[in-house]
Design a protein that fits this description.
Blueprint: E1 4-8, E2 12-17, E3 23-29, E4 33-39, E5 45-51, E6 56-65, E7 70-76, E8 96-98, H1 110-121, H2 125-140
Parallel strand pairs: 1-8
Antiparallel strand pairs: 1-2, 2-7, 3-4, 4-5, 6-7
């Protein structure tokens, strides 16, 4: 199972599967279930299946792969209803954690959420180029270890794990 972080927003629930250099990524989002599988660079296979706390709109849910993780954002069927947990069962699997860096009270926070969804949905060549330029700059400074510092600009919480 892949280490997984989750957090709640008014319209979406977010899951981040922490797998670096993933390949063969498969994400199936159903109304009450999510199935995730992939391989990492070493060929290790990961499989997570989650029966969701409540219903989601599978047609308006997406995933985005990066070098460090795969993030799923699932549109809630009932918006503005807080989820106390991500799983239907009232248990906490060892591989699942709350993403406290992104968790917050979200009343009247719809604009922030909309911007987050748009950010995840946008995949542009310019963004990739800027990231590569930044990495080359850090490496050129002899600070390759600085790439692990979140202040350098990698937003994924998975990077620090």
């Amino acid at each position: 199972m892949a280490a997984t972080l989750w957090y709640d927003r008014p319209r979406y629930v977010y899951l981040e599967f922490c797998v670096e250099d993933s390949t063969d990524v498969k994400v199936t989002i159903e109304d009450q279930r999510l199935v995730f599988s992939c391989k990492n660079a070493d060929g290790v296979e990961f499989y997570n299946e989650i029966n969701l706390y409540a219903r989601v709109n599978s047609k308006d849910s997406r995933e985005k792969r990066s070098d460090r993780s795969i993030t799923c954002f699932m549109r809630k069927w009932k918006e503005k209803v807080a989820w106390p947990r991500i799983t239907k069962e009232n248990i906490k699997p060892a591989w699942l954690s709350v993403d406290f860096d992104n968790w917050r009270d979200w009343e009247d926070d719809e604009e922030v959420e909309r911007a987050m969804v748009e950010q995840y949905a946008e995949v542009s060549w310019a963004t990739g180029l800027r990231t590569m330029q930044h990495i080359m700059w850090v490496l050129g400074k002899g600070g390759h270890q600085a790439l692990g510092d979140p202040a350098v600009g990698f937003p994924s919480r998975c990077w620090r794990r």
